[in-house]
Amino acid sequence: MITIEGPEGTERNDLATVASGGIAKPAQAGLPLTVGLLEKALLERYPRSDAESWDCMGLLVGDPSKPVKGVCVALDVTKAAIRTAAACGANVLLTHHPAFLSAPPVISPSREIATSPGVNVWEAVQSGVALMNFHTALDVSDDARNLFMGLLKLDYQSMAVPADAGEGKGYGYLCSVRAQDAPLSLAQLAARCTSVFGRTPRVWGDRRSMVASVVFANGSAGNVVEACLANKTDCLICGELGYHLALDASQAGLCIIELGHDASELPLTAVLAEAAVESGVSADAVRVIDQARNWSCYDSTRL
């Protein structure tokens, strides 16, 4: 059973856990699973060729020859996540978002550059925790598509914005509402999203509008709005849009359910956790760090 850690590294038994089948097959018979072998196995699943050219993915920090002692999975690389991994005895922090997109100009613990990703690199090296991510290659994977379609109970049709990565890959899943759920209103779909993602979304459009066609795009979704309008899609469910883009799109007739960038991608940590187990890491050595409480709304928080 994969464990989910609370924000401060405390175990949270009230959160849903991800079932898995005990200890997975070893990477190579008679050889320990190393950080490098784990990266190799995950790259076979989420290849570099599927990632955007500007992306940084794979092993960014750490010694590939070190045996894997444990893996912590998170959405983002933070100092707290690195420290939680080290406290759990894990020497790999596996994330969706990369620690950096370009090399940090300074690698130092100095508070004066606390916003620099070099601070996290320093913390990882000092803690002996390797940093590994698969970002945009995971975004366009079958694993991600199957996850989101299952959570939202929508039927996948095609990609709104096909990618160069390969047939069937791209951004924005063009979906249809299942026959047994029709007719479905915008308000009902927004309520479903609230239940699935655990956050109250920002909704653009008349909540009484009926929804038949939907595009789901996790994270930033500016590149799929034009496709939604061209295809006369009823509703876009996304992580985030710029205000003016959302305003213009809603005025053009597109309903929008804006979840929040992080809320739309937190479920991908479960995908990465399962992928780590299937790559040879013992399920007992995989922990998911809960980063769902990085921020809150005062009107929904009991003091």
Features:
Udp-n-acetylmuramoylalanyl-d-glutamate--2,6- Diaminopimelate Ligase, Chain: A, domain 1; 303 residues; 2 domains; 6-stranded mixed sheet; single chain; alpha/beta; 10 helices; globular
Characterization of this structure:
The protein is α/β, with parallel strands linked by helices and 303 residues long. It has 2 domains: 3-137 and 265-292, NIF3 (NGG1p interacting factor 3)-like (Udp-n-acetylmuramoylalanyl-d-glutamate--2,6- Diaminopimelate Ligase, Chain: A, domain 1, 3-Layer(aba) Sandwich); 140-259, NIF3 (NGG1p interacting factor 3)-like (Udp-n-acetylmuramoylalanyl-d-glutamate--2,6- Diaminopimelate Ligase, Chain: A, domain 1, 3-Layer(aba) Sandwich), CATH 3.40.1390. Helix content is 30%, strand content 21%. It has 10 helices and 14 strands. The strands form 3 sheets. The chain has a 6-stranded mixed sheet with strand order 1-14-3-4-5-2, with helices on both faces. The chain has a 6-stranded mixed sheet with strand order 6-7-11-12-13-9, sandwiched between helices. Strand 3, helix 2 and strand 4 form a beta-alpha-beta unit. Helix 2 (79-87) runs parallel beside helix 3. It is globular and about 55 Å long.
